[in-house]
Amino acid sequence: MKVLALFLSMFLLISAFAFSQGESEESEVLSIEQLKEELNKIKGQLQGVIKIETELKTDREELKQLIISNNETVALKMLLSIAAACESFRADQKMNNFPRKFEELKGYISDKVINAASSSDPMLGYYYDYQYVLGDHFKLKAVPAVKGETGERTFILDDSGSIIEEETGEKVSLE
Predict the structure, then answer these.
(1) Bridge partners, 121 (sequence order)
(2) Angle, vertex CA 77, rays to CA 74 and CA 78, nearest 5
(3) Whole-angstrom Cα distance, residue 161 to residue 139?
(4) Confidence (pLDDT) at 135
């Protein structure tokens, strides 16, 4: 918006100069040097605005990366919390089984987490998925709601306790 205002100022200044050239000698006429001086002032203001816009863009990118980093850390902690709830559930069962459905963890983990995993609403930038795997195993997955905006990486955790980055297959830790 400021850039538009500066261009408009420059246009009006040039228009005033052109108009004044047609007037009589009695009216005040800007000299070419005065006009150049005014244009240089406007140019300096314009460069200042461009610099501020560039700094804001950099700040927005840094903020975006902080949000992504925070969301990924929360996703890792969430996976570990869900896995701990699965282990608690298993220990309380006579058959020593993991839950077959995520909703069975009610009472072992907050309703907010259960709702995030069983709905289309992400929790802090991530969706969570629980799968019971035959042979009494489970697999948890944390997927960014909007890749590149809320998170960069997808994480998988199974009953072995290892967290793997899906895209690279590398183990991930909170350290």
Answers:
(1) none
(2) 85
(3) 10
(4) 81
